[in-house]
Design brief:
single chain, alpha+beta, 6 helices, about 20% helix, globular, metal-binding
Length: about 270
């Protein structure tokens, strides 16, 4: 375990036990106030020194220095960057996913209700990480990540993909505008909406929809960790929870994968 982190700092999936990965929680960092404590967003108004220390702890979990923990400027789109050379912290391009075959870097996506999705070839040599909110999922970011991994030599039939902690259907109330936009882009999304208690409102199953899109793309080994970021305030930041409370600053958790044999919690 990296210095400062505790077992509750990381959620791991047995489906990805063969590769280095972790869905990190908000526990085990040095940030304070609304960012407490393992806030890893470089775009927040948190103390930059605290964010750097938090990211160093995450990178250390993989036995890597902070500069090897890569991220992108997430825009809720379908862009994917294939990492052939690392970049300086905070200088990632605009995209919502990364793939690589380099074992000396770790790919991190930032979330606070959206779905962090980690990909690996079954030999652990090619990995990917995607940020999938409803816009990105409907827009094809998951399929784009699969295609980028295939371009590196991974076979879709040999991929394992896990959807990490995100807002659960029971917590994710949306209006008709969001539902209509999703159905216009993908009519098959209809089965992932159920009627809400309020007229004109629905509840959307983000994790289930992400898994369905992956299966339609040909991935057969798909799973979800099944954790609700809104309900679990102790372990997760949540944009929707913050909105319901009236707004204010918020931290973000990070989910990370790196090529190479898995590391487990000590």
């Amino acid at each position: 375990m990296s210095a400062g982190l505790v077992p509750d700092s990381v959620v791991q999936s047995p489906y990805l036990s063969f590769v280095r990965h972790g869905f990190f929680t908000r526990i085990g960092g040095v940030s304070e106030g609304p960012y407490a404590s393992l806030n890893c967003s470089t775009r927040s108004e948190d103390d930059p020194a605290a964010v750097t220390e938090n990211r160093c702890r995450v990178a250390g979990f993989f036995g890597l220095p902070n500069e090897s923990l890569l991220g992108v400027s997430q825009v809720h789109g379908d862009g994917v960057i294939t990492v052939t050379e690392p970049w300086k912290p905070g200088e990632g391009g605009k995209a919502d996913a990364m793939v690589t075959a380099r074992p000396d870097v770790a790919l991190g996506v930032i979330t606070a209700d959206c779905g962090p999705v980690l990909f690996a070839s079954k030999d652990g040599k090619i990995v990917g990480a995607a940020h999938a909110g409803w816009r990105g999922a409907v827009g094809g970011v998951l399929e784009a990540t699969v295609s980028a991994m295939e371009a590196l030599g991974a076979s879709v039939e040999e991929m394992v993909v896990v959807v990490g902690p995100c807002i659960a259907q029971a917590s994710y109330e949306v209006g008709t505008d969001m539902r209509d936009a999703a159905l216009t882009a993908d009519a098959q999304a209809a089965s992932f909406f159920v009627s809400g208690q309020r007229e004109g409102h629905f509840h959307f199953d983000l994790a289930g929809y992400c898994m369905d899109r992956l299966r339609r793309a040909g991935v057969t080994a798909v799973a979800s960790v099944g954790l609700d970021t809104l309900k679990d305030e102790r372990r997760f930041f949540s944009h929707r929870r913050r909105t319901l409370a009236g707004g204010g600053p918020i931290g973000h958790q990070i989910s990370v994968i790196a090529a190479g044999s898995g590391v487990e919690l000590g």
